[in-house]
Design brief:
Elements (H helix, E strand, L loop, with lengths): L1 H32 L7 H6 L1 H34 L5 H7 L2 H4 L2 H11 L3 H9 L7 H25 L3 H9 L4 H12 L1 H16 L3 H7 L9 H10 L3 H25 L7
Helix pairs in contact: 3-8, 3-11, 6-8, 6-12, 8-11, 8-12, 9-10, 11-14, 13-14
Length: 265
C-alpha cells in the first residue's frame, strides 16, 4: 500500500510539472492575441516592410541552413567515424556557437571584417557587414553547431559495419558514404535541416549585430519585432510574433512526423 501511494505521488508530481510548464507556454503565446487587432491584419499583410521581412527571412534561412548541412555533414561524419589527436578539442570547439551568446558570435564576425583579410574580402569579393550576406553568415555561424550535433547523433546510430561491408564488396570510402551512410541517415538529415532552418528563422542577436535592422534592406522577422516595439507599434509586433510562433509549431510538428518512424534502416 505504501509503495502504491509512493508511486502515485511520484507520478502526480511529474505530471503536475509537465502540465504546469505546458500551461505556462500556452498562456505566454495566447497573451499575444490580446495585443493583436484583427482589423489591422489586412493592412499589416499589405505592408511592404512586413512582406520584405518575410521574404528575406525565408530566403536567408534556407540558404544558411543548406550551407550548414553541406558543411556539417562531413564534419559530423568525421567526428562520428574517426578518432584522432585533438578530436575532443575540435568537438568541443564546434559546440561554441551553441553556448556563446549570439551577440558575442555576431561581434566576432563583425570584428573579423575589420581585420586586413576581412577588409580585403569586403572590397574585392562581397560586402558582408550591413547586407543580406551578413545575415546568411550570422545565421550559418549560429546554426552550424546545431547541424553538426544533430548529424553526428544520426551517424552515431548507424552501425559502421555496413560501410565496411560495402568497402569489402568493392566500394571506395566515398561510394560507401554515398550509397550506404547517406540513404540510411536520410530521415535524420531531413530532420536536422528542418530544425536548423527553424533556428535560422528565429535568429536575432548575431544577425542584428552583423547586418543591423535596416527596414527594407536587412530587416528579418525577429528584427521586425524589435523595430516595431521600438516605435510602439504593438499590434504589428504581436502579428510578427504570432507568425513566428505558427512557423515554429509547424516546423516542430513536421520534424516529429519525419522522426515518427525509425530514422535508420
Amino acid at each position: 500500500m505504501k509503495k502504491k501511494n509512493s508511486t502515485k505521488l511520484f507520478r502526480t508530481f511529474m505530471f503536475s510539472m509537465l502540465a504546469g510548464m505546458s500551461l505556462y507556454l500556452c498562456i505566454l503565446f495566447i497573451a499575444l492575441t490580446g495585443f493583436l487587432k484583427i482589423e489591422d491584419i489586412p493592412g499589416i499583410l499589405r505592408s511592404l516592410e512586413i512582406r520584405h521581412a518575410i521574404k528575406l527571412t525565408f530566403f536567408t534561412a534556407t540558404v544558411s541552413s543548406l550551407l550548414a548541412l553541406a558543411v556539417g555533414m562531413p564534419c559530423a561524419y568525421v567526428l562520428s567515424r574517426y578518432r584522432f589527436r585533438g578530436c575532443n578539442f575540435i568537438d568541443t570547439l564546434l559546440d561554441l556557437p551553441i553556448v556563446l551568446s549570439p551577440v558575442a558570435v555576431g561581434t566576432g564576425i563583425l570584428l573579423l571584417f575589420q581585420t586586413v583579410p576581412g577588409r580585403w574580402f569586403s572590397e574585392h569579393v562581397m560586402i558582408v557587414v550591413f547586407s543580406w550576406t551578413g545575415i546568411i553568415m550570422a545565421q550559418f555561424t549560429v546554426i552550424s553547431a546545431l547541424a553538426i550535433r544533430l548529424l553526428k547523433a544520426t551517424f552515431d546510430e548507424i552501425n559502421p559495419r555496413y560501410g565496411k561491408v560495402a568497402r569489402v564488396l568493392g566500394c571506395t570510402p566515398g561510394m560507401a558514404f554515398m550509397k550506404v551512410d547517406l540513404p540510411m541517415a536520410r530521415r535524420g538529415i531531413l530532420s536536422a535541416w528542418i530544425l536548423t532552418w527553424a533556428r535560422a528563422v528565429g535568429e536575432f542577436g548575431a544577425t542584428v549585430t552583423v547586418a543591423g535592422a535596416i527596414a527594407l534592406k536587412t530587416e528579418t522577422l525577429p528584427s521586425s519585432i524589435y523595430l516595431h516595439l521600438s516605435t510602439v507599434q504593438i499590434s504589428h509586433a504581436a502579428f510578427v510574433m504570432t507568425l513566428m510562433v505558427i512557423i515554429a509549431l509547424v516546423v516542430l510538428f513536421l520534424s516529429r512526423i519525419v522522426l515518427r518512424r525509425r530514422v535508420f534502416i
